[in-house]
Each structure stands twice: as structure tokens, then as C-alpha cells.
Here is the input.
Amino acid sequence: MFRAPPEWGVEPVPAEKKILRSWDIIVLWSSLGVGLLVMQAGALLVQWLGLSLFEATLISIIGSIIGSLILALAGVIGSKYGVPTMVSFRPILGVRGTYLFSLLNVIQLIGWTIFEVIIMGEAATSISGEFLGSYTRIFWSTIFGLWCTLLAVYGPLAVVRQWLEKFAIWLVYISSIWITFNLAQNITFTVESTLNNSSILLGLDLVIAMPISWMPLISDYNRFARSVREGVLGTFISYTIANAWFYIMGVMLATIYPSESIVFSIAILMLGQVAILGILVDETDNAFADIYSAAVSIQNIFPKTRQWKLSAIIGILSLFLSYVIPIAQYENFLFLIGAIFIPLFGILFADYFVIRKGKYEISEFYDGKVIDFKAIFSWLTGFITYYLLTYIFTELSIGATIPTLLTSFIVYLLIKKVKA
Here is the structure.
């Protein structure tokens, strides 16, 4: 008989279950920071923005440091109070004010799951060959989609301790080292620049977008950390290294094989198919995280709904959508995520770290205000700022991520000061 695993929805994780050590956090976030989609994003720096190898590499490192620091700070509230991400916004937005962002988070997480399932299916097909003709990708997507759904049903503690640490993470480390070694033998690194500031800053936004895309999920996992310090340092160090590493591999692949897909480029390396298999095993944790966090976000609105049931529904829905949705306009999808969530975390940083001096009462997560329109207005100014800088005033060449974060941060502080 199936036994449902223990669940912690919107309620604080009990102290005895906050068991993830620094090493657990490092394994989790280094695992979530790597993947075929990260390499695909790195390839866009060369294929889409036309950056040189030197520029793209430097941007990958700087953007990873900035994005990972923001990501790590976003998980402080979850680590301290044991609450998931959407609940951590309740003292700021109000209980009902978080509902809209919970729904937006579910939509973007289903989108991420679809992308992950598609790319895992394509990668597996490159290894096995089309033994089922045009249905081969669907076959592999189904296998991976169902496995990721099962992982989500069993939850993060089981995935980190039983799946990642004992098996998956070691395969991806070995595979990634092998790919990097092969690429290093076939590329000449020179210091050169295209002198295109607009593309450079847009590329920086693209790199920062990857760690920031995890911000709406981070407290869903870091709430199990033993301490705030272990959660912050483990996340920052591991994600910075993992994100930069895989972005740079994507850059190198696109430089050596400019007209090929990432998966095919890896496959033609020596033992490339074996390396893809190793990455594929670990890639499943990304889709697991998307499915699990989508379920937790729904629980922010419907707290009595069982988490494992929601995970099963979301996983199967995403799988079916992956059969019909093409993996196109990926870069626009990343920018959309930034436009929605970057200003939201600007408000969180202003309220928690500046106004409240790092202190909330636990009751504020459950018995606070219903909705705060001042916070919603601050978020809207940030959202508009991101959209204008990304799609309208691109000639300004200042990027969008940091200006957006600062806009919502400053607007919220000013509104609170005027009220005081």
C-alpha cells in the first residue's frame, strides 16, 4: 500500500525536521544550478547576443556571483522561520496579496517543468537513437516526467539524502568534468571584445536570470536548513560555482559548434553520450523542484489540499503539455520570470532587512493583514521598469535586473517613510 510521505505545507517546519547541513545545502543547490538548460542559456550569449568567448566567460562569472548572492539572501526568511517562499511574503503583501504571485509562480514552474521534460527527452533520444521513430522523444519524456513526479511526491528531504547525495550528484560532477576537459582541448582562449555594451549588459541580465528564477522556490527547500548561516553560505557558494561552470560550458560549446544544439554538440565529443547520460540523471532534480514548489505554492492558497496529490497532478499535466509545446523563445521566458519576481524580492529585501531589521513575528505569516496595496504598487513600478528597460529603451544599455530590484526597493522604502 502507498504511504504518503510527511508534508509541511504553509506551516513552519518543526525544529526536529530542520536537518539539512551545509553539505546537504551545497549538494542541493549545486545540483539545481547545473543542467542542460543552463548550458543552453550560456550558448545564447554567443549564438543570440554575439559575445566573444572572453566576454561571455567573464559575464558568466560576474552574473553568477550577483545572481547567487541575491538568491541566497532571498532564502533567509525561510531558513529562519521555517516557512515556504510564498508564505514569506505574507507580512509584506498580506495573506491574499500573495495569492496572485502564487498563481504566477505555478504557471512559470509548470513552464520550467515542460522545458525540462522536453530537453531530457531530446537528450535521451540523442543517446538511444530514434528506435520508436518520431515517438522516441515522447517515450523518454514520459519516463523522465513520471520519475520527476515521483521524486516530488516524496519531497526534498528524501531527494537530497537518498537520491542526490548517494547517486545523482556524483554522476553529474564526473560528466561535467569530462565535458570541460574535452572542450578545453578544442578551444583557444583569447582576450577580445566586441565592444557592444548593450549585448554585454543584456547578457549579464540573462546570466542573473537563472539564479533569480529559483528565488520563488528557495525557501521551499532552505526552510529545512539547520541554520540561516548554513542556508545562505551553502546556497551562495554552490550555486555561484555551478551556474558559472555550466554557463561557460554552454559558451564553449556554442563557440566550437556554433550551428549545433547543445545536446548534439555534447554528443559528438569523445564519450559525449555517456556524459549526457550522467547529466540527465541529475537533471531530474530540476523538474522535481519545479513540481514540488508548484504544489507548495498552491497550498499557500488552498492549505488543506494534500501536497503529494498536487505534485502528482502538476507533474502529469506538465508531461502532457510537453508533448505539444515546442522549446522555442527560451530567452524570452527567462526575461519574463525576471520581470515578475525581481521587483517582488526588491520589496522583500527593503521590508525585512531595512524596515524590520531582520525581525518578523511568526503570527505575521498567518494572522496578518489581508492585502497591502502599497506593496503591490511598489511591485508594479518595478515590473514596468524591467519591461521598459528590456523591450523599449534598450538603447540605454544599462541592463534591467539591478535597476528593477533597486526601483521596487526604493519605491517601497519611500512609501513606508511617507506613511510614517
